[in-house]
Design a protein that fits this description.
Structural class: alpha+beta
Number of helices: 4
CATH architecture: Alpha-Beta Complex
Bound molecules: 2-amino-4-trifluoromethylsulfanyl-butyric acid, cobalt (II) ion
Shape: globular
CATH superfamily: Creatinase/methionine aminopeptidase superfamily
Strand order of the largest sheet: 8-7-9-14-15
Radius of gyration: 17 Å
Strand content: 15-25%
Number of strands: 15
CATH class: Alpha Beta
Length: 249
């Protein structure tokens, strides 16, 4: 296994997959209000996806039963949409992937519903900025460890903790390709980044310990200590200059 370099044409397909992902996530964010069930968000994703002409990448992946992941408060990732009702003050992570002409896009956002605590806001903002720090470090000629370290250093400088057990990943024809991209690591280590690599960076931060647990449903990942957490993700392509974010609308 090695890191797959994409052609311009392939990156073009991923650009379209990424635009679909960004468009759907924006719709989901607008629909997120107290009283809505997470199942309704999944249904909205299905409708938007049909309208935009993409296929869902999570549905059926290792038996995953939905199109989106909706993870609330101490839930970190892989929350299965269902009858849970969103309430004022919830911190909701929405993760979504789409396929366009056999190429994948994958992104996630965390959204505060109504009024949230200053601590929750700080956690969310820091996670999003940690992702931006990772993107800024993801340049041809840099090493993968530079990206991991940039994310970790930013998160920890603000007093938050990066999750160890889940990582970002290469992406292309498959949702998960080489390499794994931890949200912690050493600058100057790991493979060199090259133009045409396509990567999904996804910092996951907690306000407590980094340990997680999986619910009896086999999917929903929560912080082991019940602390609040946040998750942002973008799919990007390495270029000659700054990485191109493929999942911005
Ligand atoms: N963004 C997540 C990931 O990169 C989505 C996977 S959810 C799954 O792993 F259900 F498809 F597994
Ligand atoms: Co991902």
């Amino acid at each position: 296994m090695s890191i797959i370099i994409k052609s311009e044409r392939e990156i073009g397909e991923m650009r379209q997959a990424g635009r679909i992902v960004a468009t759907v996530l924006e719709k989901l964010k607008k629909a997120l209000r107290p009283g809505i069930k997470t199942r309704e968000l999944d249904e909205l994703a299905a409708r938007e996806l049909a309208r935009l002409g993409g296929r869902p990448s999570f549905l059926g992946y290792r038996g995953y039963p939905a199109r989106i992941c909706a993870s609330v408060n101490d839930e970190l990732v892989h929350g299965i949409p269902g009858e849970r009702v969103i309430r004022e003050g919830d911190l909701v992570s929405l993760d979504f992937g789409a396929i366009h002409h056999d190429f994948q896009g994958d992104a996630a956002i965390t959204v505060g519903v109504g009024k949230i605590s200053p601590e929750a806001q700080e956690l969310m903002d820091t996670t999003e900025k940690a992702l931006e720090a990772g993107i800024a470090a993801a340049r041809a000629g840099a090493r993968l460890g530079d990206v991991s370290a940039a994310i970790q250093d930013y998160a920890e400088s603000r007093g938050f903790t990066v999750v160890r057990e889940y990582t970002g990943h290469g992406i292309g024809r498959q949702m998960h390709e080489e390499p794994q991209i931890p949200n912690f690591g050493q600058a100057g280590t790991g493979p060199e980044l090259r133009k045409g690599m396509t990567l999904a960076l996804e910092p996951m931060l907690t306000s407590g310990d980094w340990r997680t647990k999986v619910a009896p449903d086999g999917w929903t990942v929560s912080t082991a200590d019940g602390s609040l957490c946040a998750h942002f993700e973008h799919t990007l392509a390495i270029t000659d200059g700054r990485a191109e974010v493929l999942t911005r609308a």
